[in-house]
Amino acid sequence: MAANELGKYRLTVVLGPTASGKTRYAVRLAGEAGAEIISADSRQIYRGMDIGTGKDLGEYVYEGRPVPYHLIDIVDAGVRYDIFRYQRDFAAAYNDIVSRGRPVILCGGSGLYIESVTRNYAIPEVPSNPALRAELEQHSDEYLIDMLKSLTVPHNTTDYDTRKRLIRAIEIAVYQKEHPEDAGVFSGDNAPLARFAPEEVHYIGLSVSREERNARIDRRLDARLKEGMIDEVRRLLESGLSPEDLIYYGLEYKFVTLYLTGQMSYDEMRAKLAIAIHQFAKRQMTWFRGMERRGIHIDWVSV
Description:
Blueprint: E1 11-15, H1 22-33, E2 36-39, E3 46-47, E4 61-62, E5 65-66, E6 69-70, E7 75-76, H2 83-99, E8 104-108, H3 111-118, H4 130-136, H5 141-151, H6 163-178, E9 201-207, H7 210-227, H8 229-238, H9 243-248, H10 251-260, H11 266-293, E10 298-302
Parallel strand pairs: 1-8, 1-9, 2-6, 2-8, 3-7, 9-10
Antiparallel strand pairs: 4-5
């Protein structure tokens, strides 16, 4: 996509699986067009979670000039952050950027976050239900997965990654079933959301073969381990975060925490983490193909 084409759309989306080079592509596009980038990554919002989430903040530079980015490092690790809040934060960042006459690029691999803001999803704010959580804690993961499937179509299989995610997904599904009047209604501060017509958003997908994608994932994982990812997780634990808090975030934080707490060896951690990231990338691509089935046109670019 030529940079001068950004002006045709209210929003340009750069999406793709992990290790596909989304940040580099978006930064080049933004640098050429004078655009700013909003992150659509569900974990890069957390301060102190840098290496494991692949923030690569040094990449936000084009021809020696910094490229502004938003929704990275906005909350402390351990804080629960949901799609409802992301929609509000996206709207604030988007409205700020366009008020200054700059084009906007949304870049990331979280398909649900991307669709929630580009497809005008109405998501009610769901409060916690301690009594329900206590009841659900008594059941096995298999029982909870079956229960979730009976209540709703899960957003994706990351709902199953940890027990906390699974219970929260059921909590949301039960609330929505019990409060049908909230469907399509936003609660909270009712800040103005950015709403888009389908033709106002241009989706660019970065395509890489499965073999190359997995090879990149493995190389990147080894590089991050050498860069200090284990020390990063250790510092988070020493700062007061519980192992359960970090395991909740899945992937790097889950497996490195299990290693640091003596629940698996280094070699086992590295091997299982690589497999988990491969599977995660596959799920991302499944989500993006689902977006296409839901009527979203994605221009795929081989990288």
